[in-house]
Amino acid sequence: MKNPVRSKAARIAAAYGILIALALILSYVEAQVPAFFAFPGMKLGLTNIAVLLALYRMGGVSAMTINLLRIVMVSLLFGSFSSFVYSMAGGMLSTVVMILLKHIGKFRPLTVSIAGGISHNVGQIIAAMILMSTAGIGWYLSVLWFSGLLSGALIGILGSELIKRLPHFAGDDLK
Amino acid sequence: MSENRSNCKSIKRDVILIAALVLTGCIIAVCVMLFSGGGAAVEVRVDGNVIAVYSLNKDRTVTINGVGGSNVLVIKNGEACISEADCPDGLCVKTGNIKYKGQSVICLPHRVVIEIIAGADELSGADVFVK
């Protein structure tokens, strides 16, 4: 495989740029889709494609960095304080869960994505319980558990394809 | 090749984990259905403080003054909903009707929460209670 960029550092820097840009765009696209599900909090989690690719091709630290930067930038650009808190709670919990499952459990991207989707929604519910000081939204967990499972599976299928087709995304073929 | 082999090996673990996650979701759903029977009253909170409690047995329309705006609470046929609100996202209106204990409609911009509470016996017949 011939690649014009020979420096691994440059490839990694470019990979960060591409993935953060991709995550930002996907966040924006997702924000443009009006709550197309009956329940607030249900969403596709398109940005998780970028996080998943980072996790499998660049490692846990990169996945965490990209997701953190994405959340901060999206919140500054389009969000409010409460959306920032929700994104943080969901994003951080799901990223930690995905990193643990990938590195310790050695699970496949699809499974990792499903667990990530669920834990994202669990994190958001916990944040909502604290923010609104109500335990009453506990019933909502069952709805969001399955919506996270489904969206995680969908994103997992897409992400797995991407991971398979980009084996040297962050310059693994270079020294 | 070696990557393929390790993938095959881990398929079983993946299936088990996914099955466990589905099962956990079902257990949560069953628990929610068992422990949240129909409620009898709706509690209105603004910024975490209980503003009022209304019985679900009597139809009524109330305007709730939230932080920076208002929401219209409608109680009809044992169900409650927010019918109108001047918040930017309107998510509280989209949430629709609620009637089960623990269900709630939340308007984040106005920091308004309406939540279904208490079985009929717990409410001791009071029709409305305003703090």
Description:
The complex is a heterodimer of chains A (175) and B (131). Chain A is built from six helices and no strands. By secondary structure, chain A is mainly α. Chain A has one domain (8-165): Arp2/3 complex 21 kDa subunit ARPC3 (Orthogonal Bundle), CATH 1.10.1760. In chain A, helix 2 packs across helix 6. Chain A is globular. In chain A, 43% of the residues are buried. The mean pLDDT of chain A is 86. With 131 residues, chain B is α+β, with helices and mostly antiparallel strands. Chain B folds into two domains: 1-35; 41-130, mini-chromosome maintenance (MCM) complex, domain 2. Chain B has helices at 2-35, 91-95, and strands at residues 41-46, 49-55, 60-66, 69-76, 79-85, 104-107, 112-117, 128-130. The longest helix of chain B is centred in the N-terminal third of the chain and has 34 residues, at 2-35. The relative contact order of chain B is 0.19. The interface between A and B is medium-sized, with 28 and 34 residues.
The radius of gyration of chain A is 16 Å
Order of helices and strands of chain B: HEEEEEHEEE
- The share of residues in helices of chain B is 25-40%
Parts with pLDDT < 50 across at least 5 consecutive residues of chain A: none
Largest sheet of chain B: 5 strands, antiparallel
Mean pLDDT of chain B: 80
Classify the oligomer: heterodimer
**Which parts of chain B are unreliable, with pLDDT below 50 for 5 consecutive residues or more?**
1-5, 119-125
Q: What would CATH call the architecture of the largest domain in chain B?
A: Sandwich
Q: Report the top-level CATH class of the largest domain in chain B.
A: Mainly Beta
Provide the structure class of chain A.
mainly alpha
CATH class of chain A: Mainly Alpha
What is the fourth-level CATH superfamily of the largest domain in chain B? N-utilization substance G protein NusG, insert domain
Q: What keyword list fits this structure?
A:
heterodimer; A: 175 residues; mainly alpha; Arp2/3 complex 21 kDa subunit ARPC3; globular; B: 131 residues; alpha+beta; mini-chromosome maintenance (MCM) complex, domain 2; 2 domains; five-stranded antiparallel sheet; three-stranded antiparallel sheet; 2 helices; 8 strands; elongated; disordered N terminus
